[in-house]
Amino acid sequence: DLPLDTPSLPTFDFSSAYNGTSTTNTKQSKDKNSKQETEKKEKELREKAEKEAAEIIALELEMINSSIEGNNDYNYAQYTQGLIDYRKYTENKRDISLHSLEIQRQALENAGLQETQVYKNILKKEKSLKEQYSDLLLNISLKQLEETKKIEEDALTSQYLNPSSPIFQNEIAYRQKLFKLDVKFLQDKQKLYTKDSEEWLEIETEI
Question: Which of 1, 60, 64, 155 is least crowded, fewest Cβ atoms below 10 Å from its Cβ?
Fold first, then answer.
């Protein structure tokens, strides 16, 4: 019998490939754990800051609440006694509320808590309050202008019908004065709006 030459099978070293995969997996696992740990610490810091901010606001409100109530009571008394008009009363209410928010905001700024949601909420309240009172005061001013115009028109009509008036039954003089009142009213109304705004331009066209 002739001897058979059996070719030897090639051998491969899988250890290096295995070790590489293992190292990569281990690194990814460590990175993931590190990220989770960082996120956890950041969350804890945020929660701590929010809690501290809430405590500061509670303390500030406790200290200024009596002052706010006193100022609001005094403002209302001034209005009901006729010492200030409704516009001034409204302006005072706005200023009292804004001053309260300003004290709270500054307290958080002094504590370095500007990144908290509590601080951001105060900024939103300030903005909303300013917009709300801006619209309210504008409407009050418009109403006052209209009331003043009506009073002046009635006075002119009385002069026109009064035999002792220089414009008694003088239609031309009467109409001229009414026209001047209309122009003055539009000019005063225009001053209430920002120059070149849509409302301002509309009034400019009327004038």
Answer: 1
